Amino acid sequence: MASETETVVGGPVLVVAPHGMDEVLGCGGTIARLTAANRRVEVLVLFGGGIGGNTAIRAAGLRVAALLGSEPPRYADFPENRSDTLPLLDVVGVVERTVTELRPAEVYVSHGGNLNIDHQTAFRAVATALRPVPGTPVRRLLAYEIPSSTDWAPPGFGEPYRPTCFVDIADHLDRKLAALDVYGPVTRPWPHARSRKAVEALARSRGASIGLAAAEAFVLLREVLVIDNPADKVVAN
Fold first, then answer.
1. CATH architecture of 13-220
2. pLDDT digits 0-9 by tens, 202-223
């Protein structure tokens, strides 16, 4: 019989992305590492995706999912860059329904101290949907950075981004960058923060800060530790 710890650690993972490509910028390497370990990863894109000119991004999202090994993205199709005009409860409802269906053990979302309004709204919606009520399946909640938004936020846009945990993506950085290339039309040339070269430099810098060749950095927002009790194990004679 699997222990509760094993069930939690091996459970599904949900990445909530404000827009298509944010999942790659913030945690593409982590997604690749998780799926390489046979973890199921789902991506929920809240804003844009299938409306008007975003159809190309939606097509790219399918190719990126195949490249990283995640499930095909889910799109809420809320209007892009107008999330401050939406009732927050509508966005919260989409996240809640997704969590109820998937019962993820881990959830990743854009950091709240962010220049982009959709990134802020995504954070608020997830934090609200994942309030720690009895029976919640989520044991770990993390916030990721998005180059050209998290790093551009001046004082007054919320908590500064101070990562508290890191994922070694040295063996998966090439896949992250290849996934970024799929979103080519919405990337930018160097020295823009959302350029391929800048994204690689950030991964190298985050890695070097903790003695790794490359890493993605996260803010751990909440974690419920499940300590396995040997006394609970069934020992066969």
1. 3-Layer(aba) Sandwich (3.40)
2. 999 999 999 999 999 999 999 9
